[in-house]
């Protein structure tokens, strides 16, 4: 177990350096505790298929930190992580940028319970885990956040209907996607426009060890989202805009 934790620590520190990030001792310690709890609860809840230390360090923690570049300039801001699952990318970002006010949103109760346990163990403030479907959550939290983030596997045209109603005009939605993004971007053009967004940029970056490519898609909220969106639970995925 000690060797496993050392490997996690080394990959996060060295990989972070390659990404231009300085990961403090305090932050790494919190990531170690988080990882330990993930391994324990994964036996019960099947939270992730990625459990080996080096792979988890890169594909969970460093992958989440790819968004630091887009968030560090708006440090003291409200963020909602849509489909947070086991907490990625929202929780590693909150730990690295503690000034963020973070909401971790997921529709699966056991995942939210796990997130609450991690928040308590790490004694984190200004972060909450919420058990709700995003379509229903939006009814009471419309335009409540400066930023929405997600690395969920849903198509971009589906994700924007989840995210943009939650974002204030002038805010943004950041989606972490794989390398083959062009077709998804084309398919999402209409949805982005309807929902009050504008594609700002796509930042291509590689993970430091595996060299797996990521596309960080940034969509600016430029006008109010029509009140009828998001549509009721399940419809955005079944009938994308």
Automatic annotation (TrEMBL):
<feature type="coiled-coil region">
    <location>
        <begin position="21"/>
        <end position="48"/>
    </location>
</feature>
<comment type="similarity">
    <text>Belongs to the methyltransferase superfamily. RNA methyltransferase RsmG family.</text>
</comment>
<keyword id="KW-0489">Methyltransferase</keyword>
<feature type="binding site">
    <location>
        <position position="83"/>
    </location>
    <ligand>
        <name>S-adenosyl-L-methionine</name>
    </ligand>
</feature>
<keyword id="KW-0949">S-adenosyl-L-methionine</keyword>
<protein>
    <recommendedName>
        <fullName>Ribosomal RNA small subunit methyltransferase G</fullName>
        <ecNumber>2.1.1.-</ecNumber>
    </recommendedName>
</protein>
<keyword id="KW-0698">rRNA processing</keyword>
<keyword id="KW-0175">Coiled coil</keyword>
<dbReference type="Pfam" id="PF02527">
    <property type="entry name" value="GidB"/>
</dbReference>
<dbReference type="GO" id="GO:0005829">
    <property type="term" value="C:cytosol"/>
</dbReference>
<feature type="binding site">
    <location>
        <position position="88"/>
    </location>
    <ligand>
        <name>S-adenosyl-L-methionine</name>
    </ligand>
</feature>
<feature type="binding site">
    <location>
        <position position="151"/>
    </location>
    <ligand>
        <name>S-adenosyl-L-methionine</name>
    </ligand>
</feature>
<feature type="binding site">
    <location>
        <begin position="134"/>
        <end position="135"/>
    </location>
    <ligand>
        <name>S-adenosyl-L-methionine</name>
    </ligand>
</feature>
<dbReference type="InterPro" id="IPR029063">
    <property type="entry name" value="SAM-dependent_MTases_sf"/>
</dbReference>
<keyword id="KW-0808">Transferase</keyword>
<dbReference type="InterPro" id="IPR003682">
    <property type="entry name" value="rRNA_ssu_MeTfrase_G"/>
</dbReference>
<keyword id="KW-0963">Cytoplasm</keyword>
<dbReference type="GO" id="GO:0070043">
    <property type="term" value="F:rRNA (guanine-N7-)-methyltransferase activity"/>
</dbReference>
<comment type="function">
    <text>Specifically methylates the N7 position of a guanine in 16S rRNA.</text>
</comment>
